[in-house]
Amino acid sequence: MDILRLATAGSVDDGKSTLIGRLLYDSKSIFEDQLEAVERTSQQRGDDYTDLALLTDGLRAEREQGITIDVAYRYFSTPRRKFIIADTPGHIQYTRNMVTGSSTADLAIILVDARKGLVEQSRRHATIVSMLQVPHVVLAVNKMDLVEWSQDVFEEISSAFVDFAAKLDFADVVTIPLSALTGDNVVTRSNNMDWYNGASLMHHLEHVYIASDKNLIDARFPVQYVIRPQNGRGDYRGLAGQVAGGVLRPGDDVVVLPSGLPSKIKAIDTADGEIEEAYPPMSVTVRLEDEVDVSRGDMIVRPNNQPEPTQDVDAMICWMDSTPMRKGGKYAIKHTTHSARAMVKEIKYELDINTLHREPDPSTLELNALGRVVLRATQPLLVDPYRRNRTTGSFILIDEANNRTVGAGFITEN
Fold first, then answer.
1. Total-model pTM
2. How far is CA 288 from the centre of its chain?
3. Least CB-packed of 93, 98, 100, 334 within 10 Å?
4. Could you read off the pLDDT of 108-144 as tens digits, one per residue?
5. What's the CA gap between 144 and 409, in Å, rounded?
6. Fold observed for domain 308-411
């Protein structure tokens, strides 16, 4: 059974947390005591309905303010598929949290309040989702019950979003009218919108095709850990890690980077025994036929398909720290399993996500800002463009003084 990672995005009060609560409730993925706790809290707050948003808004500040602040991950499954949901905040000041939640998503649900239509935040979220190369997008026009289930309202919003999305980079866009509060078109088809002939949200999530989204061409295996026999017994030597791209099979010719030493794959092991092929995002242990020198941070690739080693990294950055990024700033950089240090050579521009306007040569990047920068690393990094591989094309920056993650980067094509 495959796993679909999805992220929600939308403005404040568009109903993201309620929608996720409805998905969990209607798919029977919550326990009775969880539901009782939500019902009790709803009564204490004076609500005349069970507020399903409380299933995801776990922080006290979130419940008090009725907003989402942190990324909340929820897990559920149906007979067809497993799901990991990232409920991301809608506020501008929590852009970094939205970037974090969407960076690994296969699909993004962008919620719009049917009464308000497309607002600035909707366009902002669509732009971020596009920048993060999330391949599949669902525009969920929520609160249709508050516009009398109007087909005209839905089609006007849907048309405006499709026109805007045409400027961005999505594999496919689907628009669905629904009401998270009443459950219409969330898990089951709505009787109130007989003019809508499409699938419910859950049906679409269960059937959207994601197998072709993974990069199965460029073999990339960052080595995370070298497994040696315990207590000196045996001669087992395996290289553990997560496949970042391509398909690996026993007998394949490979090269270990950065040393460039050639070898062949002898076997691929998992907790359940040997397998005949490994592909993203499987975590496996690779055994090589030769005793080549391999350590954490190295990468196993094909001889005729190698990433570009570079010390000058051109990337889009989402800045995540209250201390601004400045030219000349020095940070630790973590790329796949490899760590080095890096200095900010240049801040090319800051991107205004609302207008897509580029502000050239800013002096700093402030908290939640997005901009294009050039970094100089102390060691060559084995990178691919983020558009081609989301794993080898991304990195994080860490402030070595306090060990905080201060930036997330997406490598651009030169």
1. 0.81
2. 32
3. 93
4. 999 999 999 988 778 878 888 888 889 899 999 999 9
5. 38
6. Elongation Factor Tu (Ef-tu); domain 3 (2.40.30)
